[in-house]
Amino acid sequence: MIEAPEARLLAMQLDRTIRGKRISEVIPLFSPHKFAWFDGDPDRYASLLVGRCVGGSRSLGGLVEIDADDRRLLFSDGVDLRFREPGAPLPSKHQLLIGFEDQSCFTASVRMYGGLFCFPAGASPEGLYAPYYRSAKDKPQVLSEDFSLDYFLSLIGSSFVQGKSAKAFLATGQTIPGLGNGVLQDILFRAGLHPRTRIGSLPDRRRALLYESIRHTLREMLASGGRDTETDLFGRRGGYACILSKNTAGKPCPRCGETVRKESYLGGSVYYCPVCQSF
User: Fold this and answer.
1) How many alpha carbons lie under 13 Å from residue 38 in its C-beta half-sphere?
2) Burial zone of 254 (CB within 10 Å; 0-12 exposed, 13-18 middle, 19+ buried)
3) What share of the chain is helix, strand, coil (3-state, %, to 5)?
4) Three-state SS for 163?
C-alpha cells in the first residue's frame, strides 16, 4: 500500500511525466473489480475528462491528486499507477486508463481495494474517502516543513491520545495522514519503541526522538525512491530496504541480533525487536 513517501514520489513523477498532456481517451473498468470505488458513475469519466489538459500533481498524505483543468483525479492507497510510453504493452487487468494525444497513457490497477475518483475542482470525492481527503488537505503534510516539532508535540500531547499505543496514535484515525502500518515499523524501530507502548508513558525526550525518527525515516524512504516493498510510476521497486517487514520477520535484528518478531495487532501485523524496542 502506498503511504506518504510513495505518494510523494508518484506525484513528483507524474508532474514530470504527464503535465501538459491532453487527455484523448478514458477507459474505466476494463477489468471489473468489486472493491474498486469510483466517484459516481465511472462510465461518465470519459465525458468529464476527454479534452482536458493535465496540470500539476500532488500528494495528500497517502493519496495522489492530479489536476485536469476544472477536474481532479484522486487515487488512494491500494491503487497501482503506471505510465506507459506509446506502443508499450498494457497490463491484462486495470480499472482505469487515461490516454493522451501523443499515444502515451497511464493505468490505475486496484490491488485488494482502492479509490479512483474524478470530481470538480474545489469539491471532494463522495462516500467513504471524503473525510480522508479533507483531513489530508487540511493537516500539515508529514514530509513538509509545516510538520514541525511544535505541531507534532501538540498532537502527541493531546489528552485524547494519552491512552493510545504508539501504533494506534501514529497509524490509525488519520492523526498523521499518509503514515500507516507499512512505514510505522521502521519509525518505531529507530525510536526504540514497541508498537504497544502507551503514548502517555513517554517523557518529552522520547516524544522528540519519535518526531525525529518520523522525519528521518520518511525522508530517507523518499530519497531512496520508496520502500522496496512498493513500486513507482514506471514499475521499479523502491531502493529503501525496510528494516522491519514481512521479509525480515524471523531473521536477526540488524542492531542486536535478536530474532525479529511478528504479531497481529490492531488489524494488521507489527514487526519488532524485543530487545531494541521497549514498552
Assistant:
1) 17
2) middle
3) 30, 25, 45
4) coil
pLDDT band (50, 70, 90) for residue 173: confident
C-alpha cell recorded at residue 190: 529507530
Q: Report the amino acid identity of residue 134.
A: R
- The type of residue at 254 is P
DSSP string, 99-132: EETTS-EEEEEESSSEEEEEEETTS---GGGHHH
Q: Is the model's pLDDT at 279 over the cut of 80?
A: no
Strands 114-120 and 36-38: parallel
With H, G, I as helix, E, B as strand and everything else as coil, classify residue 138: helix
Q: Give 133-143 pLDDT, tens digit per residue.
A: 999 999 999 99
If phi > 0 it is left, if psi is from -120 to 50 it is alpha, else beta; for residue 192 that is left
Q: What angle do CA 134, 115, 225 make, to 5 degrees?
A: 85
* CA 75 to centroid of chain Cα atoms: 10
Would you state the pLDDT for residue 10? 98
- Residue whose C-alpha is closest to residue 253's, from 273, 278, 277: 273
Which residues are CB-neighbours of 109 under 8 A, at least 6 positions away?
A: 31, 79, 80, 82, 91, 93, 94, 95
Q: Taking a C-beta distance cutoff of 8 angstroms, is the pair 33, 110 a contact?
A: yes
The type of residue at 20 is G
